[in-house]
């Protein structure tokens, strides 16, 4: 039998640490030499210089000097826990995804919650989106659902993501703010980007200051695809519903908590799990087909839009329980590598241009962040199912893969021939017809940036609306450039007059003209000759 090419994901059995090495009390160098003294360097005489031959000193210092790795380019500040996903409602008619094959089936999982903008040491209660990333270790490989606690996103196209993040992160000429909060570059960007308006309403709402990770929803955001064993496909949107209910703090509380205990969210999660008060979420889906999608006047491929639950109710199919705290923050929380591209048979992508770009970005950044293509062998990332492929070598290779054939096709036999792809059971991308001229211009179906923002505002209670107004006024009040405030108010008039007026009143500003309501993307830019030809013949 061909051995697994990957380090087992489970923790060492008993006192076994790694590859048969036992845990022990005796202090050693990294290569196992027992130390006689771990505190004092080897010197000449009573006060003399330290000797270069002191391998024990060099071993200790060498490792320390290289402890840091790059923090995540976004979502640097996060906290994780181990979890179990249990299927409540088997849906083989919709998907062959292993976790939903039979009722009661349990799948090991790992969850990381995060803020987006802040650095590794930033406070937990920042006004920010929260990441909600779940890795499911299925028998068909790892499936990552890399979501947020807000069901929509700031932008429609992945090409804008670096701009968004440059605008939201600390400003490069001064180094602040360290966490998402009021500053000119962020408001400049979003005021010029009407497609951000819906997400902005959510970000200024109580959703962006959850009381704890335990009391927030999660969303896959994009439209994905389910695929069943017959190759039939439907669209699907994923939702995590907290069984604890939803709670937020008010801004005044957030500021005080950040001052008193910037670790409030991670401490809360750790304490709940440690005390056995295990947090749970229901995993729900909105499933629909092309015909249903075509009935909307927005595009289901547009990540700035949601499908209202009143129109399409969420069907609960599984339950996630966070049941074990991490043992080692670095090995697990820092080294875990999520990616939207990690899918399993039964799950596929839609043409959402944000999702398509994400599928490139995560793997790319993780090579930089974790330093080797072999990060999938780290225990937190290693699949719990057998792994067999023709990849080999690379930095930090730990696999003792045997056999001669590490290429295909090959005609060797038995163990030497290596694994073979399985055309029936293996992953097959959904067959779909794609055609049309190459173009960068977005479809008209992506052009309405305000209707759902208005729906969200109107769906809020009076108190919640007051919080939204207060948040806009607080944030815009910190913006130094008055042109940005004015532009933002002009956009808000397209959401709702009451909102724009209340924010303007709080800022003691006159209400400007409403900005152009539906701004078709890029019409302000000169059209390329190629596009003119396509349009005009
Ligand atoms: C983290 C890129 C949009 C959720 C990251 C990271 C990158 C990235 C490079 C760091 C990953 C790492 O170092 O391991 C992008 C790009 C996007 C995008 C290019 C848009 C084009 C989104 C959206 C969501 C999201 C729409 C939510 C639906 C997350 C989460 C993490 C993350 C939860 C943290 C994962 C963790 O806890 O390790 N993203 N992102 N991102 N992103 Fe995105």
- State the share of residues found in helices, binned by percent: 25-40%
Low-confidence stretches: 1-12, 519-537
Largest beta-sheet characterization: 10 strands, antiparallel
Number of helices: 14
Cα-atom radius of gyration: 26 Å
Question: How many E strands?
Answer: 12
Q: State which percent range the strand residues make up.
A: 15-25%
* Class from secondary-structure proportions: alpha+beta
3D shape = globular
User: What is the distance, rounded to the nearest whole angstrom, between the alpha carbons of the first and last residues?
Assistant: 62 Å
Q: Which ligands does the model contain, each kind named once? A: protoporphyrin IX containing FE
Could you spell the SSE succession in H and E letters? EEHEEEEHHHEEEHHEHEHEHHHHHH
Mean pLDDT: 93
Oligomer: single chain
How are the secondary structure elements laid out?
Blueprint: E1 16-18, E2 21-22, H1 55-65, E3 78-87, E4 106-115, E5 130-138, E6 141-148, H2 161-168, H3 184-191, H4 197-203, E7 218-219, E8 224-227, E9 233-242, H5 251-260, H6 264-274, E10 280-288, H7 290-294, E11 315-325, H8 329-334, E12 347-349, H9 353-370, H10 451-459, H11 462-478, H12 482-495, H13 497-507, H14 529-536
Antiparallel strand pairs: 1-2, 3-4, 3-11, 4-5, 5-6, 7-9, 8-9, 8-12, 9-10, 10-11
Helix pairs in contact: 2-3, 3-12, 4-10, 11-13, 12-13
The structure holds protoporphyrin IX containing FE.
EC number: 1.11.1.6
Biased composition (Basic and acidic residues): 12-26
Cofactor: heme
């Amino acid at each position: 039998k061909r051995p697994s090419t990957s380090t087992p994901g489970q923790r060492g059995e008993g006192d076994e640490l790694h590859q048969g090495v036992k845990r022990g009390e005796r202090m050693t160098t990294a290569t196992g030499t027992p130390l006689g003294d771990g505190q004092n360097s080897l010197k000449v005489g009573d006060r003399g210089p330290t000797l270069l031959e002191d391998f024990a000193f060099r071993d200790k210092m060498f490792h320390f000097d290289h402890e840091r790795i790059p923090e995540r380019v976004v979502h640097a500040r996060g906290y994780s826990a181990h979890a179990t996903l249990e299927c409540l409602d088997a849906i083989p008619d919709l998907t062959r995804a292993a976790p939903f094959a039979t009722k009661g089936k349990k799948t090991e999982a790992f969850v990381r919650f995060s803020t987006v903008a802040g650095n590794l040491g930033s406070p937990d209660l920042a006004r920010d989106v929260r990441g909600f990333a779940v890795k499911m270790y299925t028998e068909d490989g790892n499936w990552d659902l890399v979501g947020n606690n807000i069901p929509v996103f700031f932008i429609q196209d992945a090409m804008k993501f670096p701009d968004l993040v440059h605008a939201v992160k600390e400003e490069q000429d001064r180094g602040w703010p360290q966490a998402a909060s009021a500053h000119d570059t962020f408001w400049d960007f979003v005021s010029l980007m009407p497609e951000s308006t819906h997400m902005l309403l959510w970000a200024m709402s109580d959703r962006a200051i959850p009381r704890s990770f335990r009391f927030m929803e999660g969303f896959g955001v994009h439209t994905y695809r389910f695929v069943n064993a017959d190759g039939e496909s439907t669209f699907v949107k994923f939702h995590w519903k907290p069984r604890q209910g939803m709670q937020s703090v008010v801004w005044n509380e957030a500021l005080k908590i950040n001052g008193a205990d910037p670790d409030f969210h991670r401490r809360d999660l750790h304490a709940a799990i440690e005390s056995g008060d295990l947090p749970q979420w229901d995993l729900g889906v909105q499933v629909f087909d092309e015909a249903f999608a075509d009935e909307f006047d927005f595009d289901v491929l547009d990540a700035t839009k949601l499908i209202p639950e009143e129109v399409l109710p969420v069907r609960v199919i599984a339950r996630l329980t966070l049941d074990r705290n991490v043992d080692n923050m670095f090995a697990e929380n820092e080294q875990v590598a999520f990616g939207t591209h990690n899918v399993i048979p039964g799950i596929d992508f839609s043409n959402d241009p944000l999702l398509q770009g994400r599928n490139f970005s995560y793997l790319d950044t993780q090579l930089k962040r974790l330093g080797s293509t072999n990060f999938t062998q780290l225990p937190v990332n290693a699949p719990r199912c057998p792994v067999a492929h023709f990849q080999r070598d690379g930095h930090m290779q730990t696999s003792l893969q045997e056999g001669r054939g590490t290429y295909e096709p090959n005609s060797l036999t038995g163990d030497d021939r290596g694994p073979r792809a399985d055309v029936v059971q293996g992953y097959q991308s959904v067959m779909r017809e794609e055609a049309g001229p190459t173009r960068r211009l977005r479809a008209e179906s992506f052009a309405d940036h305000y209707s759902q923002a208005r729906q969200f505002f109107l769906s809020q209670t009076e108190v919640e609306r007051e919080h939204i107004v207060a948040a806009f006024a607080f944030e815009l009040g910190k913006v130094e450039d008055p042109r940005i405030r004015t532009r933002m108010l002009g956009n808000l008039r397209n959401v709702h007059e009451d909102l724009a007026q209340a924010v303007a009143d709080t800022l003691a500003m006159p209400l400007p003209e409403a900005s152009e309501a539906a701004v078709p993307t890029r019409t302000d830019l000169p059209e390329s000759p190629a596009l003119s030809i396509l349009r005009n013949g």
